[in-house]
Amino acid sequence: MSLFSLPRIVISGQFFLLLLFFCGCSAPPGNPLDGKKWFMMNNCSACHGIHGDDGRAVHIADLNMSFGSFVRKLRTTDAPIMPYFPESKVSKQDAADIYAYLKSITPEVNR
Protein backbone atom coordinates (compact mmCIF):
# COMPACT_ATOMS: atom_id res chain seq x y z
CA MET A 1 0.00 0.00 0.00
CA SER A 2 1.40 3.36 -0.94
CA LEU A 3 1.17 6.52 1.09
CA PHE A 4 -1.05 8.03 -1.60
CA SER A 5 -3.79 5.43 -1.16
CA LEU A 6 -3.97 5.89 2.63
CA PRO A 7 -5.98 9.16 2.56
CA ARG A 8 -8.55 7.55 0.25
CA ILE A 9 -9.03 4.67 2.71
CA VAL A 10 -9.34 7.06 5.66
CA ILE A 11 -11.86 9.25 3.82
CA SER A 12 -13.97 6.29 2.70
CA GLY A 13 -13.87 4.91 6.25
CA GLN A 14 -15.06 8.24 7.65
CA PHE A 15 -17.83 8.37 5.05
CA PHE A 16 -18.93 4.85 6.00
CA LEU A 17 -19.05 5.76 9.71
CA LEU A 18 -21.02 8.91 8.97
CA LEU A 19 -23.48 6.95 6.82
CA LEU A 20 -23.82 4.29 9.52
CA PHE A 21 -24.45 6.97 12.16
CA PHE A 22 -27.22 8.67 10.21
CA CYS A 23 -28.90 5.46 9.06
CA GLY A 24 -28.64 3.80 12.45
CA CYS A 25 -30.16 6.74 14.34
CA SER A 26 -33.08 7.53 12.10
CA ALA A 27 -36.51 6.26 13.00
CA PRO A 28 -38.20 3.85 10.65
CA PRO A 29 -41.60 5.14 9.52
CA GLY A 30 -43.92 4.75 12.48
CA ASN A 31 -47.68 4.36 12.63
CA PRO A 32 -49.16 6.52 15.42
CA LEU A 33 -52.36 4.41 15.59
CA ASP A 34 -50.37 1.22 16.17
CA GLY A 35 -48.22 3.10 18.66
CA LYS A 36 -51.29 4.20 20.60
CA LYS A 37 -52.59 0.61 20.72
CA TRP A 38 -49.23 -0.60 22.04
CA PHE A 39 -49.09 2.27 24.58
CA MET A 40 -52.55 1.38 25.93
CA MET A 41 -52.23 -2.43 25.78
CA ASN A 42 -48.92 -2.46 27.64
CA ASN A 43 -50.15 -0.16 30.37
CA CYS A 44 -47.82 2.79 29.68
CA SER A 45 -50.85 5.01 30.25
CA ALA A 46 -51.11 3.78 33.87
CA CYS A 47 -48.17 6.01 34.80
CA HIS A 48 -47.78 8.45 31.91
CA GLY A 49 -51.53 9.04 31.51
CA ILE A 50 -53.78 8.42 28.53
CA HIS A 51 -52.49 11.55 26.80
CA GLY A 52 -48.87 11.12 27.87
CA ASP A 53 -48.98 14.19 30.09
CA ASP A 54 -51.74 13.50 32.57
CA GLY A 55 -50.22 10.80 34.76
CA ARG A 56 -47.82 10.51 37.68
CA ALA A 57 -44.75 9.81 35.57
CA VAL A 58 -42.68 12.05 33.31
CA HIS A 59 -44.69 13.84 30.63
CA ILE A 60 -43.94 12.28 27.27
CA ALA A 61 -46.58 13.93 25.05
CA ASP A 62 -45.03 15.74 22.09
CA LEU A 63 -41.82 13.91 22.90
CA ASN A 64 -38.72 16.09 22.65
CA MET A 65 -35.93 13.59 22.00
CA SER A 66 -34.42 11.77 19.06
CA PHE A 67 -35.56 8.29 18.12
CA GLY A 68 -32.19 6.89 19.20
CA SER A 69 -32.50 8.47 22.65
CA PHE A 70 -36.07 7.18 22.94
CA VAL A 71 -35.01 3.61 22.13
CA ARG A 72 -32.12 3.81 24.62
CA LYS A 73 -34.60 4.91 27.32
CA LEU A 74 -36.86 1.97 26.46
CA ARG A 75 -34.01 -0.52 26.49
CA THR A 76 -32.13 0.70 29.58
CA THR A 77 -34.30 2.94 31.71
CA ASP A 78 -32.82 4.81 34.66
CA ALA A 79 -36.18 5.11 36.44
CA PRO A 80 -36.50 2.40 39.12
CA ILE A 81 -40.24 1.96 38.61
CA MET A 82 -40.23 1.82 34.80
CA PRO A 83 -39.59 -1.59 33.27
CA TYR A 84 -37.02 -1.88 30.53
CA PHE A 85 -38.05 -3.18 27.12
CA PRO A 86 -35.41 -5.23 25.27
CA GLU A 87 -35.70 -5.88 21.53
CA SER A 88 -37.41 -9.21 22.32
CA LYS A 89 -40.32 -7.31 23.93
CA VAL A 90 -40.41 -4.17 21.77
CA SER A 91 -39.17 -4.46 18.20
CA LYS A 92 -37.61 -1.49 16.45
CA GLN A 93 -40.84 -1.12 14.45
CA ASP A 94 -42.97 -1.15 17.62
CA ALA A 95 -40.65 1.49 19.09
CA ALA A 96 -41.04 3.57 15.92
CA ASP A 97 -44.84 3.29 16.20
CA ILE A 98 -44.81 4.33 19.86
CA TYR A 99 -42.42 7.17 19.05
CA ALA A 100 -44.70 8.37 16.23
CA TYR A 101 -47.68 8.24 18.60
CA LEU A 102 -45.91 10.22 21.33
CA LYS A 103 -44.72 12.81 18.80
CA SER A 104 -48.30 13.18 17.54
CA ILE A 105 -49.90 13.88 20.93
CA THR A 106 -50.77 17.49 21.56
CA PRO A 107 -49.64 18.58 25.04
CA GLU A 108 -52.45 19.43 27.47
CA VAL A 109 -51.76 23.16 27.33
CA ASN A 110 -52.61 23.13 23.61
CA ARG A 111 -55.63 20.80 23.81
Which descriptors apply to this entry?
mainly alpha; Cytochrome Bc1 Complex, Chain D, domain 2
Q: What would you note in describing this structure?
A:
There is one protein chain. The protein is an all-alpha fold. The protein has a single domain (28-110), classed as Cytochrome c-like domain (Cytochrome Bc1 Complex, Chain D, domain 2, Orthogonal Bundle), CATH 1.10.760. Helices cover 50% and strands 0% of the residues.
Give the overall form: globular
Beta fraction: under 5%
Q: In CATH terms, what is the architecture? A: Orthogonal Bundle
**Sheet of most strands:** none
- State the separation between the terminal residues, measured CA to CA: 64 Å
CATH evolutionary superfamily: Cytochrome c-like domain
Q: Helix-strand pattern, N to C?
A: HHHHH
Please tally the β strands and state the result.
Answer: 0
Query: Class in CATH?
Result: Mainly Alpha
Structural class: mainly alpha
* Tally of distinct domains: 1
Indicate the mean pLDDT.
81
Count the helices. How many?
5
Low-pLDDT regions? none
Look up the CATH topology: Cytochrome Bc1 Complex, Chain D, domain 2
**What is the C-alpha radius of gyration, as a whole number of Å?**
19 Å
Question: What is the topology?
Answer:
Elements: H1 6-25, H2 32-41, H3 45-48, H4 67-75, H5 92-104
Quick structural gist:
With 111 residues, the chain is mainly alpha-helical. The protein is built from 5 helices and no strands. The mean pLDDT is 81.
